[in-house]
Amino acid sequence: MSETDNDAGDFRIGWEEWVSLPSLGLPALRAKIDTGARTSALHAFDIEAFGPPSAPKVRFAIHPIPGRDDVTIPCSANVIDRREVTSSNGESEWRYVIQTELSLGDHHWPIEITLTNRTQMSYRMLLGRQALRDDMIITPSHRFCQPQKTYDVYHSAAVKAAAPTRALRIAVLSREETNYSTRRLVEEGEKRGHVVEVIDTTRCYMAINKLSPEVHYDGKRLARYDAIIPRIGASITPYGTAVVRQFETIGTYCVNPSDGITASRDKLHAHQILAGQRIGMPATAFAASPKDTANLIGLVGSAPLIVKLLESTQGKGVVLAETRKAAESVIDAFRGLKANFLVQQFVKEANGEDIRCLVIGGRVVASMKRSAAEGEFRSNLHRGGQAASVRITKVERDTAVRAARAFRLNMAGVDLLRSDDGPKVLEVNSSPGFEGIEKASRKNIAALLYDDIEKRVRPTPARRRAGTATVSDASNEAG
């Protein structure tokens, strides 16, 4: 309760008040009103600037409750300035300056505030004279002239749900910066206020040690990212997944895990995983010895049948053998090249069509039917196939979700065939393209992915490691 009565129309404050900074997700802070200080200050740690020089942002974390390091609020804001601030003990410090809305009682107005580590201070926020309004009446002998708050709000589900979406720093691992999917990820991320950087996977290199594993790029250690979106090409799967694994070691959220990417790329391994989860697929056989060719063909039925390289992609390395003799010739040719391949049942009733289901965050968000070009059995869009929106059944939807979950992929393109005995999974793609399915479904796939990323990214930043550069937290003003 206030220690003094307010006259009607007076905006009276004491030397200590409860305030909130709603745009930063801080509903309750005890602030000291200090007319002797010119600038306002907010407690912050893990301070890191990011984004282009023309529109810099800063992200930081706050322990809003003094003495409670277990309660951490991650924040981000646009940088409006960087100033040298001299504390009351004469020490100077360069600080980032942000603008945010301040709420005090029933009053709301924008203020400029500097970021600094106030861990040793009694107050997480200092309100300097630049932030004070002309209509305020300050009573230095009183405290809490405005309604009081409580720190219990930080444990409220409603407050957590209403927390603002902070700007994220996201890396897209891709060698093709102009690729449609990569461009869409950058465009959509920046539209949502995030900073999205395209990183060429092959130019990353790794420092591997037990204390501080790091990823380096073009001679510099990469900054801490909130999330990684892997777009690993088939030709660099081993190295690309090693880079993803390094980010996982650091603790960065990766949309798709390295082991899921690796398993989905190896067709034999992928089919073994699907079989282990009892997920329908065309009958498949694999053998290493040339003596087993006849038996290999017999395991999947009669011709026509499919002969497929284990690391085929976009329909490349997939051959339709229309007769048994043709199948034997293709198998012999692949063995002569020392290529690893598998033999698979040809599903005639699919009529050269398959269904691409895009799974994000454990649900099918879009689907399309791909039809092969005339004279072609492969329906891949890269092979001239045509795409159209399609309505899928509950069984097809469940099959696609189960297939993505089998590889622990948060984003996957699951290709299904419609057969007489239910949907059969052809492939699970860990780097599905966006162009065809966005046009066919008329859905913003990139936005749906960011919806999932924003929900999944850990709310608390990773613990600062030794050697990480941050704004100095050594100098704080008194109070």
Automatic annotation (TrEMBL):
Any one GO biological process: SOS response
Record key words, sorted: ATP-binding, Ligase, Magnesium, Manganese, Metal-binding, Nucleotide-binding, Protein biosynthesis, Ribonucleoprotein, Ribosomal protein
Cofactor(s) essential for the protein: Mg(2+); Mn(2+)
Superkingdom of the source species: Bacteria
Any single Gene Ontology cellular-component annotation: ribosome
One Gene Ontology molecular-function label: ATP binding
Cross-referenced InterPro entries: Asp_endopeptidase (IPR008503), ATP-grasp (IPR011761), ATP-grasp_RimK-type (IPR013651), ATP_grasp_subdomain_1 (IPR013815), Peptidase_aspartic_dom_sf (IPR021109), Rimk_N (IPR041107), Rp_bS6_RimK/Lys_biosynth_LsyX (IPR004666)
Entry keyword Acetylation: no
Domain called ATP-grasp: residue spans: 271-454
Pfam families attached to this UniProt entry: RimK (PF08443), Rimk_N (PF18030), Zn_protease (PF05618)
Residues covered by region (Disordered): 457-479
Record-stated family: In the C-terminal section; belongs to the RimK family.
UniProt protein name: Probable alpha-L-glutamate ligase
Protein species of origin: Meridianimarinicoccus aquatilis
Gene this chain is encoded by: rimK
